[in-house]
Design brief:
By secondary structure, the chain is of the alpha+beta class. The protein has two domains: about 80 residues, Arc Repressor Mutant, subunit A (Orthogonal Bundle), CATH 1.10.10.10; about 180 residues, Endonuclease Chain A (Endonuclease, Chain A, 2-Layer Sandwich). The protein is about 50% helix and about 20% strand. The strands form two sheets. Strands 4-10-9-8-5-6-7 form a seven-stranded mixed sheet, sandwiched between helices. A three-stranded antiparallel sheet has the order 1-3-2.
Length: about 290
């Protein structure tokens, strides 16, 4: 069971010192007092308490009366939270603006292991949100809750989104390929797979526990070679899954239509954007 945090611990997490937290909470619960009285009550050095009071006043956490014998009163906690929230949001907006102006770093070829489920989810959504041309994915049912809305949004902005699924689902704008008897196939393993390739530039492979609370194995990469390999794997999985439905039924026209519909996605045959990305990545090394 998680231990509930105390108010002073939380105040320290948002920028108060230990002494500032003690002074504020004492004034909040005991009402107006002089700095001297506060120091005596909490058993701290008077000089240090006066410094803490000055800092709290600068932070807008307390107010002081005029006159020689200054009374200190804590700002109501709801008012403090509202004020701190506004300051935090303002700082985050300023930070976003400042970081946006920084030059982009060059994409590296490293493979990064992911051990946290939240990080897997964040990376998956980020890749989908950043897709510009084509996104391919294999999404098992229990991972769909994370990516369904981002996939729909990507398709709505013009990205060609094709995914393989194991249970029927409606995703407007997304080309969904349903694995025949997918529920039975999915049930053969006690884990959850999520595979994503965005524009042939970035990829994510994740294997999670069945409750999606832990990572068994997961990694992401912008390696042009590894990304191309996953892109091709997902593409041929999607095509083959559809063909396995059409061919046994003798529906040659449908099979031909599937091949025509995906012809532009084949990297080396069509020299598409994925081909361009791969070709440019290692161009200097080939020469």
């Amino acid at each position: 069971m998680l231990t509930e945090q105390k108010p002073d611990e939380i105040l320290m997490q948002v920028g108060f010192t230990q002494l500032e937290s003690e002074v504020y909470l004492y004034l909040l619960t005991e009402g107006a007092h002089t700095g001297y009285a506060v120091a005596k009550a909490i058993g701290k050095a008077i000089a240090n308490v006066y410094k803490a009071i000055e800092r709290l006043a600068q932070k807008g956490a307390l107010e002081q009366s005029s006159g020689n014998s200054k009374q200190c009163v804590a700002v109501p906690w709801r008012q403090l939270i509202t004020s701190e929230t506004k300051k935090f949001n303002s700082n985050m907006e300023a930070l976003t603006s400042a970081l946006t102006r920084l030059p982009d770093h060059q994409d590296d070829e490293q493979v990064y292991q992911i051990k946290n489920v939240s990080h897997v989810k964040e990376q998956a959504i980020r890749m989908i949100d950043n897709a510009e041309n084509v996104l391919l994915a294999n999404v098992e049912p229990k991972a769909m809750k994370w990516v369904a809305e981002p996939l729909i949004a990507a398709a709505a902005r013009g990205v060609e989104v094709r995914i393989k699924v194991y249970e029927e689902i409606q995703l407007p704008g997304v080309i969904v390929v349903l694995r025949k008897e997918g529920t039975q196939v999915y049930a053969k393993t006690s884990d959850v797979q999520l595979n994503i390739c965005s524009d042939g530039k970035e990829m994510l492979n994740a294997l999670l526990t069945l409750d999606t609370n832990s990572v068994i194995q997961a990694f992401r990469s912008k390696s042009a070679l590894m990304t191309l390999m996953l892109y091709n794997q997902l593409l041929y999985e999607l095509v083959l899954t559809e063909l396995k439905e059409a061919i046994p039924l003798g529906d040659i026209e449908k099979a031909q239509a599937i091949l025509r519909d995906t012809e532009h996605l084949h990297v080396f045959g069509s020299e598409n954007t994925v081909f361009d990305s791969f070709n440019q990545k290692y161009k200097n090394l080939r020469e």
